[in-house]
Automatic annotation (TrEMBL):
Function: Required for the assembly of the mitochondrial membrane respiratory chain NADH dehydrogenase (Complex I). Involved in mid-late stages of complex I assembly.
UniProt entry keywords in alphabetical sequence: Oxidoreductase
Any one of the GO BP annotations: mitochondrial respiratory chain complex I assembly
Pfam families recorded: DAO
Family matches, as PANTHER family: FAD-DEPENDENT OXIDOREDUCTASE DOMAIN-CONTAINING PROTEIN 1, SARCOSINE DEHYDROGENASE-RELATED
Origin superkingdom: Eukaryota
Molecular function, one GO term: oxidoreductase activity
Boundaries of every FAD dependent oxidoreductase domain copy: 51-454
GO CC annotations, alphabetized: mitochondrion
Annotated protein name in UniProt: FAD-dependent oxidoreductase domain-containing protein 1
Gene3D superfamilies in the record: D-Amino Acid Oxidase, subunit A, domain 2 (3.30.9.10), FAD/NAD(P)-binding domain (3.50.50.60)
């Protein structure tokens, strides 16, 4: 298998790629680096930047933060939509949990959670009027399992404890005693994260990162990257952190073409480029011919939609019907065994519910054909598919009403639903941090840190995330995360 994988890798980066020297029809800019201390005005496109980040969501800005925190390299973030109306960051829930089955995902959660709990130490700026609160609510996460999945939950629990996670196993009786409004009839056990888990406001975290990055000198450009230009020369690259790995022939991307809101185009040279385009990362990769006949292994990331509903229990009850208890302020973030998610919404008495079960994908995709991503979700979908699951788990919700709804989007990795984090094996100065499949917001801080270490040191130093490399597609080595939702 290893020999076959290496053969495929060397074939993908063979010298025949020299035939395709330019990826862009536009003139390539000469690279003359400007001072890394220059603070550019917003929307002023610099002639060159040492590190270009494509995507102004939370992963893009987290990467920009860690780069400037660790170095003096000039950084430019390019985002096509200044409102981020269709971004995974603003449409997501902002939950965080340690309850995964793979060590890397657990470690990223622990790293990010520690940052969130102490975010003011990291993101504070001298002008205190800009400091904001991200509303981190450490209420914990309760994951439920039936008899079929109980053994897997127990195994994951032991791994989580070994890595320092603060989680505890609960019996059916424990769950009923602590949260009497949960129907545990078909539940065998549960796992509750009593520390380092909960939820936060991703829009506020994004804003805090942008403010901090502004004070640190990061340049921000509103525009869409529509093309890349590459050096005409191929180079032999060796991997200093993996001496047993064969060297590969590589070619560096050198500049990008940006379409600006006024219809004009700008060109920016760079030393390294980060693909942090979230659900649209696959399209950005295609601009560098990743997935073409020359580089046949595509970046397997595409938008995946989820209907999200805000519900409120009705205040008027029929005295002739049985009255069930309702969730209170101690409600954790609940992940039902049927992939139903329930989150208390502040002190409003409302709850956010949705399901990411794959069987709903064709239904939602069909409904999204003629709708914008952030449009109201289909309420018929709620009553037909979500409400039966919700009422079964929490009988007190049998009379809920939908107060609002929207359609969220995530960067879905169609191959193994796990993060892709590495440089590309041919375009070695294009760094990929995509495909978290719904975990991107909670792991953004850790992803940004790891991406920064790859750029600055060519290896991971804080967390070992080598298994998330793009190379796994050549070697057919999927990351098998059982709690990938």
């Amino acid at each position: 298998m290893l020999k076959t994988g290496l053969s495929q890798l060397n074939y993908a980066v063979s010298s025949r790629l020299v035939k395709s020297r330019k990826l862009s029809k536009f003139t390539r800019l000469p690279l003359t680096w400007s001072s890394s201390e220059v603070i550019y005005r917003e929307n002023q496109v610099p002639r060159n930047t040492e590190i270009l980040i494509v995507g102004g969501g939370i992963i893009g800005w987290a990467t920009a933060f860690w780069i400037r925190q660790s170095s003096k390299h000039s950084v430019t973030v390019v985002e096509k939509d200044s409102t981020l109306a269709n971004s995974a960051t603003l449409l997501g829930l902002g939950s965080i949990r340690q309850q995964f089955s793979e060590p890397e995902n657990i470690q990223m959660s622990l790293f990010s959670s520690h940052f969130l709990r102490n975010f003011k130490e990291h993101l504070a700026v001298e002008d205190h009027s800009y400091n904001i609160d991200i509303d981190f609510n450490p209420q914990g996460c309760l994951m439920l399992a039936d008899a079929k999945n109980a053994d897997s939950m127990k195994e994951n629990h032991l791994l989580q404890l070994d890595l320092g996670a603060k989680v505890e196993l609960l019996s059916k009786q424990d769950i009923s005693t602590r949260w009497p409004w949960i129907n545990t009839e078909d539940i065998e056990i549960g796992c509750y994260g009593y520390e380092n888990e909960g939820w936060f406001d991703p829009s506020k975290l994004l804003k805090a990162l942008k403010i901090k990055c502004h004070f640190m000198g990061v340049n921000y450009v509103v525009g869409e990257v529509i093309d890349f230009d590459a050096s005409p020369y191929t180079l032999k690259y060796r991997f200093p952190d993996r001496p047993l790995r064969p060297s590969v022939m590589s070619r560096r991307l050198s500049s990008a073409t940006i379409s600006l809101p006024d219809g004009t185009r700008a060109y920016i040279g760079f030393h390294s480029v980060v693909n942090a385009a979230g659900p649209w990362a696959g399209r950005v990769a295609e601009l560098a011919e990743i997935g073409s006949e020359h580089l046949p292994i595509r970046l397997p990331v595409e938008p995946r939609y989820r209907h999200v509903f805000v519900v409120r229990p009705k205040s008027v009850f029929n005295p002739e019907e049985k009255i069930y208890p309702l969730p209170g302020l101690d409600t954790p973030f609940i992940i039902d065994q049927n992939r139903l998610f329930i989150e208390r919404r502040d002190l409003s008495g409302e709850f956010i519910v949705y399901s990411d079960h794959p069987k709903f994908d064709p239904i939602i995709e069909k409904q999204q054909n003629d709708l914008s991503c952030n449009s109201s979700a289909n309420k018929e979908f709620f009553h037909e598919h979500i409400k039966p699951l919700l009422c079964k788990r929490i009988p007190g919700f049998k009379d809920v009403e939908v107060t609002s709804s929207w359609t969220a989007v995530c960067d879905y990795n169609t191959w193994d639903q796990n993060l892709i984090l590495s440089f590309h094996p041919f375009h070695i100065n294009m760094y990929l941090c995509n495909g978290s499949s719904g975990h991107g917001t909670q792991h953004a801080i850790a992803i940004g840190k790891a991406t920064t270490e790859l750029i600055l040191f060519s290896r991971f130093k804080t967390l070992d995330l080598v298994r998330f490399s793009f190379d796994r597609f050549y070697f057919n080595e999927a990351v098998k995360e059982s709690n990938c939702f």
